Amino acid sequence: MMYSNKLKSSNYTLKIANRLIYALFVITILTGCENKQKDFEQLESQVEKEYKKIKKLSYDVQNIMHFADGTIWDNQGSAIIERDENDEIFGFSFYGIRNDLNRALVYDNGEAFQLYNQDKKIRIETPDSHLLGTPGGQMIYEDIFKLEEEYQSVDLVETDSTYHVRYKFADDTIYNSTERTKELILRHHDLLPIYVKTEVQPEVGNKFQSIYKFSNYKLNDSVQSSIENKKRILNEYEPIVYDEPAPNPIIGKKIPEITLPKLFEPETQYALNQKKLTLIDFWEIWCGPCIQSFPKIQNLNDTYSDNLQIIGVVTEDYDFAQDLVKKRNANFLNLRGNKDLKKEFRVFGVPNYFLVDEKGIVLHQYVGYTEKIESDIKEYLSKQIKSKPKVMM
């Protein structure tokens, strides 16, 4: 009996000890998380103070981009950035130049100019975020004056000379992208980034990766040029004037008698001319607006299925395209296109849509999805109903 009581007492003591150890473990973890959060909040406060001191900076940069289809861009150049709190697009003015092409971009006061330095020509650009995709714009790091504000979690590691920050973001439910992260290495003394890597796993294909490697920073008075100086040479360049684009010659004409393999059954050929009202949708897996419009195209397919044939045409990465169509539950017909077909239809970008009547005549072209597609379908079908002869009873 005494041995049994001692055993019970020992078991009870062990349970209490285990609970205390677990409680201490939880407290340690929570305290560690709180300390990490405090450390990062202190860093954010330091960054805000340091960045406010910077009115102008310049740097050299290497920009490496890995795309979902396996393509890699590796470009180098330099930039000048001047803070402009009144600017509504970027919050700064900038000059960026990509070395290999010798093409630059100047943006200031809501005006943008692309410079073809070798030919001494200039093109006026629309001032919006697409500027960062131009050769000179690729040298601009958009978040140069700020850290991220919205994120799921953040880790901070400090070394003797740098801070390493790693953000994790929530999945993007619009484009179905996952594993969204961003890593920064900041210099200790002024907290400017020397390395930035952003990664995203798209719905199909390889992980997209963007890397900036910065060097040779100059700040404020040590910057050797200015946006104003870069603008002074603009009058030495010849403006590029584009004629109004001619209408697509296929509009109003009958489409050629073309058959294409089905996306999921490549051994089966399918004719584009279906002798009924048809909407042809040219798209690609890397095109965000194409994928974003899938639900609208699917809705047209479901709503007008008795009188309308929808045909999707994709010309690249058929395996990835199959995966994407399945994930998006897009059950309208898709075919395997080619470059010759895009040339025939004068398709130079996607998404591109063509409305074709039952005689095979191209009625309309739409560059990008627009609600006019459905209104034109309704109008055409309404006219068809009115033109049918009434049956006398």
What does this structure look like?
It is built from 7 helices and 19 strands. It has 393 residues and is an alpha+beta fold. The protein has 2 domains: 187 residues, Lipoprotein localisation LolA/LolB/LppX (outer membrane lipoprotein receptor (LolB), chain A, Clam), CATH 2.50.20.10; 128 residues, Glutaredoxin, CATH 3.40.30. Strand 18 and strand 19 form a beta hairpin. The longest helix has 51 residues. The chain is globular, with a radius of gyration of 29 Å.
Q: Count of helical segments?
A: 7
Sheet with most strands: 12 strands, mixed
Number of domains: 2
Instruction: Work out the number of β strands.
Output: 19
Mean pLDDT: 88
For this structure, the CATH topology of the largest domain is: outer membrane lipoprotein receptor (LolB), chain A
Q: Could you name the CATH homologous superfamily of the largest domain?
A: Lipoprotein localisation LolA/LolB/LppX
Distance between the amino and carboxyl termini: 106 Å
Keywords:
393 residues, alpha+beta, 12-stranded mixed β-sheet, 5-stranded mixed β-sheet, 19 strands, 32% strand
Entry summary:
The chain has 393 residues and is an alpha+beta fold. Helix content is 26%, strand content 32%. It is built from seven helices and 19 strands.
Secondary-structure map:
Blueprint: H1 2-52, E1 56-66, E2 72-83, E3 92-98, E4 103-108, E5 111-116, E6 121-125, E7 153-158, E8 162-168, E9 178-187, E10 193-201, E11 208-219, H2 227-232, E12 238-239, E13 259-261, E14 269-271, E15 278-283, H3 288-292, H4 294-303, E16 309-314, H5 318-327, E17 333-336, H6 339-344, E18 352-356, E19 362-367, H7 372-387
Parallel strand pairs: 6-12, 15-16, 16-17
Antiparallel strand pairs: 1-2, 1-11, 2-3, 3-4, 4-5, 5-6, 7-8, 8-9, 9-10, 10-11, 13-14, 15-18, 18-19
